[in-house]
Amino acid sequence: MRTLRADESGLAEAVSLLRAGDLVAIPTETVYGLAGDGRSADAVARIFAAKQRPTFDPLILHLPASWKTDFESRSVVDLQGLHPTDANLARALAAKFWPGPLTLVLPRHPSVPDLVTSGLDSVAVRVPAHPTAQELLERFGGPLAAPSANRFGRISPTHAAHVIQELSGRAAAVIDGGPCAIGLESTVIRPTGRAGEWQLLRPGALPREAIEALLGAPLIEPPPSGRSSPGLAQPSPGLIETHYAPSKPLELLVGAGAHDWACALADHEGAALLFFSDASRDRALAGAEITRPCRVLSPTGSDVEAARNLFSALRELDASPAPSLLAELPLGTQGLIPAIRDRLERAGCRYPTSTGGTP
Ligand code: TXA
Ligand code: MG
User: Fold this and answer.
1) pLDDT tens digits, one per residue of 180-205
2) What are the pLDDT digits (tens) for 100-152?
3) Which residue of 158, 166, 185 sits with most ligand 1 atoms within 8 Å of its CB, as the best mutation to test the pocket?
4) Ligand 1 centre distance from Cα of residue 290 (Å)
5) What DSSP character marks residue 245?
6) Is the C-beta atom of 34 inside 6 A of ligand 1?
7) Pocket test for ligand 1, best of 44, 148, 182, 243 (most atoms within 8 A of CB)
């Protein structure tokens, strides 16, 4: 896999690879994506093969920023298939939040390859905000299908080096656009079919409060996780329970005090530790001397900083000599906390604590 610079010659090379049906990993503001021509069934098939991703899990089409106001006339979505209220809301959501980390699941245009949508009658679309992704999309002049550039089920990449670890030999190139500014995937929503009612399919980098303020109504909760019917297209990304996972066992402590942590540390000798903030680490360890690998997502407890560091911290601890991982599951319902919780919960399982702990 070649590493291309995010400059004139790197972008020109990336466009010619994509036009030839090859795959190029690209930086976005959320995570790196593995991009292929979204109008080519062959290129899209290559994405599934490179990621070892089951074909029942549909992809997001990334659109050029210049399509933001007329995306409905680009043979990607078909807003005629929506109630007029929802078509107007889709336009308003795009106008307000694109470019940015919001993915809209909308009725598909018939020309979108079946493989992109896993045969569903809807297609996921977003306009990424990263300047390199935008420049590439303008030059390419069409939609790029791009799932996160990791092998299926594994930790999403937020640096070009992570992409090389995940997909070396499985894609033609990666454009190095530096670390991703947000570090968590986009928020995915869809209209439910009842006028004005939208559902959260995946909590993500755009906090739900911002979407609900525009809709003027709460989002419907995501469907419960767990795969419903093997082999069938998933109605939602939330339905695949194990995801974003390190290769070592990961256990999560929620709302845990020093006593629970002491038990967990004794149960998991040598386990690497992940804390949300300096304050929560100090509370959990209660002055105990720790020699194991340990990371804090945000010293001051900022959800934005924690999101940016989450996947690289998990990756680093997974690569450490520790046999397993213990992580704090932060409490809270605002900002990026729900998305951080979602990723950790899909990556691991709960360590039984005395308090249990709800958000
Ligand atoms: O931030 C992001 O969204 C990143 C960057 C690269 O843009 N992309 C990303 O792609 O996270 P991926 O493939 O890892 O996640 C896309 C999610 C999948 O879980 C998929 O199930 C869901 O979007 N999705 C795609 N099409 C859908 C559809 N028609 N209906 C419901 N969910 C859909
Ligand atoms: Mg992914």
Assistant:
1) 999 999 999 999 999 999 999 999 99
2) 999 999 999 999 999 999 999 999 999 999 999 999 999 999 999 999 999 99
3) 185
4) 39
5) B
6) no
7) 148
Distance CA 234, CA 118 (A): 8
Please tell me the pTM assigned to this model: 0.94
Atom of ligand 1 lying closest to residue 128 CA:
7
**Span 157-186, mean pLDDT?**
97
Q: What value does the mean pLDDT take over residues 51-66?
A: 95
- Identity at 4, one-letter amino acid code: L
C-beta of residue 185 within 8 angstroms of C-beta of residue 148:
yes
> Of the given ranges (9-13, 122-126, 137-141, 344-348), which has the lowest mean pLDDT?
344-348
Q: Which atom of ligand 1 is nearest to the CA of 53?
A: 13
**In the block, which residue shows the tokens 């390190």?**
246
Whether ligand 1 lies within 6 angstroms of the CB of 200 is answered as: no
Q: What secondary structure, in 3-state letters, does 63-123 show?
A: CCHHHCCCHHHCCCECHHHCCHHHHHHHHHHHHHHCCCCEEEEEEECCCCCHHHHCCCCEE
Sorted by where each starts, the structural domains of the chain and their CATH numbers stand as 2-227 (3.90.870.10), 250-350 (3.40.50.11030)
